[in-house]
Amino acid sequence: MSRYKSFSFLMVFVPVFLLVLYFNNIDPEKNTEKNVTLRQAQRKELRRKMCELGKETLYGKILTTGKNFENFIVDDSRKILYCYVPKIRLRTYTKFLFVRDPFVRLISAFRQKFQSIDEPFYSNYGKTMVRLYRNQSDPPKTQREVIALGLQPTFYNFVQYLLDPRTERYGPFNEHWRQMHRLCHPCMLEYDFIGHQETLEEDAGELLKMLEVENKIHFPPTKNATTSDFIKEWFKTVPLEDRRMLYNLYKWDFKIFGFKRPDEILDS
User: Fold this and answer.
1) What is the pTM of this model?
2) Where mainly found (predicted)?
């Protein structure tokens, strides 16, 4: 199978992709005062500076194998590349990605995969968390059983799993919680458009213009919300030292994509 996933029907892909972002967006945040074009320039310049700053750290972790590029969708007919979460020809392609606050993304992954019934994820990941961090040498075989016994993984158990050095000895993080810079390689690819889910409505509109489909596809309005209290509530069970270690694990996602350091949970 090709290392790239190819779609021929952009008119199907783009609206589905944007709607998935919309309905999975926990915490959108509009900023109507900033010019979208200026914001894009700032995001791309920040990406360039942070990649230059961290090149010794970041490039050492990049292996140019097919597995590392499995998150790319390419439409050759329209010369579009999207990384969901290089060849010379990519210089002529419109390359874009959407990112979100790294901690909000982790919360979303935990809610979706471990608070809702998802037996494959429990079998592959949740059972390990129950065994290692809930002291169950013989964890329940199904997620429904573990919930019935009140032993389901907590958010803190999930954080412990991410911080545990043993985790990646058995393989890279799952794409739902792998660092965004490891999924989409922003220091290898010079993206034409970097969208944030926190400014989803405006960014989606600008992207549709760039793809020249703004008259054919319309995006629904989003609702404003704040993230600070939301993140505090989720991290209240996580010890301060672990919060700081988790930030260090995802710090390049914060830095490269311009997300504010969550001082409110890291400094007290």
Assistant:
1) 0.76
2) Golgi
